[in-house]
Amino acid sequence: MKAGFFEANGRQMSRGAILLLMAPFFALVIFAFLYPLGSLLSLSVLEPSPTLTNYERVFDNPIYATVLYRTLRMALLVSLLSLALSLPVAILMANSRGPKAVFLTACVLLPFWSSVLVRTAAWSILLQRNGLVNEFLQGIGITSEPLRLLYTQGAVVIAMTHVLMPFMVLPIYGALRNIPFDYNRAAAICGAGPLRSFWEVTLPLAMPGILGGFILVFLTALGYFITPSLLGSPQEMMIATLISQQIRENLDWPFAAALVGVLTLLVTIITLVFSKVFRFERMLGARA
């Protein structure tokens, strides 16, 4: 097959035809994402006049640097917890068949059937002073009085991990399902035990799914808004909550746009670093 063509239903399509088919997608990206984002970022440097004052405020005030650092730390913690909890689930799903596999898949996909707001509200009920968690801790004698679990960083981390776990499980599960069973059988024939076979065969081959899920959860957690707003305290806000505060309470759109610009730049840098360091295309078997 010649370069610049691909075969579909026995016929070859030119690169121009492919671009024509992709035009609606590109148009949607431009008008639904790039244009609104560009318009918002323009406010940060053009309002009230061409200036970089709004960006100077972001870096000059230590409060905003603290919020940015807290956002990075919590996003990393949520990603690590999601990975630790999702890997065993994905392995169990990949090794299951029949009704058991259907049941496990349904458990992972079930959270998508309810909104993030509903799941976050459920955690607020569980973690309140007279909620199920405090009643359980007092019932087994660990605590003598209700703990302050709600409106803390711990509550935000727990709820965000629960909400974002499916985005970690599914990429890892997909990578594990693509590993031929013969590889582990060959490792066993060569004398490798289950643990060594997993460490030297399964884990390296599943690494694209692990890294893909990790970066997906991490980048999503950086801009998360609903869960930190409902379960966190104003003294421990994340950057998305700060942006909302600047727009809704202070009506300071240029400064909010500057915060969006900093967050966008941060996400772009992290994505490029991950792509450069881990070389996703080589890990997936593509040509360099």
UniProtKB/TrEMBL annotation:
This is ABC transporter permease. It comes from the Bacteria. Its main location: membrane. It is found in: Cell membrane. It comes from Tianweitania populi. PANTHER family: ABC TRANSPORTER PERMEASE PROTEIN (PTHR42929:SF5), INNER MEMBRANE ABC TRANSPORTER PERMEASE PROTEIN YDCU-RELATED-RELATED (PTHR42929). PROSITE patterns: ABC_TM1. The chain crosses the membrane at residues 16-37, 74-94, 101-126, 155-176, 205-226, 253-274. Residues 68-274 form the ABC transmembrane type-1 domain. Belongs to the binding-protein-dependent transport system permease family. CysTW subfamily. One of its GO terms (biological process) is transmembrane transport. Keywords: Cell membrane, Membrane, Transmembrane, Transmembrane helix, Transport. One of its GO terms (cellular component) is plasma membrane. Pfam families: BPD_transp_1. It is a multi-pass membrane protein.
